[in-house]
Amino acid sequence: MRFVNPIVFARDIGVAKAFYRDVLGLAVKADHGAIVIFEGHFAIHDATALIETVWGVAAPRRPEPLGQPNLLLYFEDDDIDACFAKLSGKVDLIHPIMKQAWGQRVFRFYDPDRHAVEIGEPLAEDKDL
After folding, report:
1. What pLDDT, on a 0 to 100 scale, did the predictor assign at position 65?
2. Which helix (H) or strand (E) holds 31?
3. Which residues are CB-contacts of 119 (< 8 A; sequence separation ≥ 6)?
4. Is 80 exceeded by the pLDDT of residue 28?
């Protein structure tokens, strides 16, 4: 068995695809309409279709956002300052670049479905892991 990718629920697949493709710059590997797979092992799926497929029930009309405070989508960028400058006016920031307790610099924001997204600078690989 191998892990392939997380699948993030999207209220509007077109809006979510445009956000991840056009704003964050992720390359689309496959677009199947209700599911879009990006390079780098990340996918989004139309929430209504996925709820009906997985649980066999009609998706409830939820007024609240799909994102939950127990999930963080993590990406890395080699030039965190340039990435922040490019995105800061285009995303709903949670906070600007901050140095974390473990030494990494990151910033966080919300996607259109209020999923929390983090972009961090790469950390050196720990050779003991």
Report:
1. 77
2. strand 28-31
3. 75, 76, 77, 80, 83, 84, 87, 106, 107, 108
4. yes
Burial class (CB in 10 A: 0-12, 13-18, 19+), 73: middle
pLDDT at residue 124 tops 90 = no
Residue 55: alpha-carbon gap to chain centroid: 23
- How many domains in the chain? 1
CB 38 within 8 A of CB 27: yes
User: For the domain that residue 25 is a member of, what is the CATH number?
Assistant: 3.10.180.10
Distance CA 4, CA 43 (A): 10
Residue 1 lies in a domain: no
Residues 6 or more apart in contact with residue 106 via CB below 8 angstroms: 80, 97, 98, 100, 118, 119, 120, 121
Single out the residue of 58, 38, 52, 47 nearest to residue 12, CA to CA. Answer: 47
What percent of the chain is predicted at pLDDT more than 70? Answer: 95
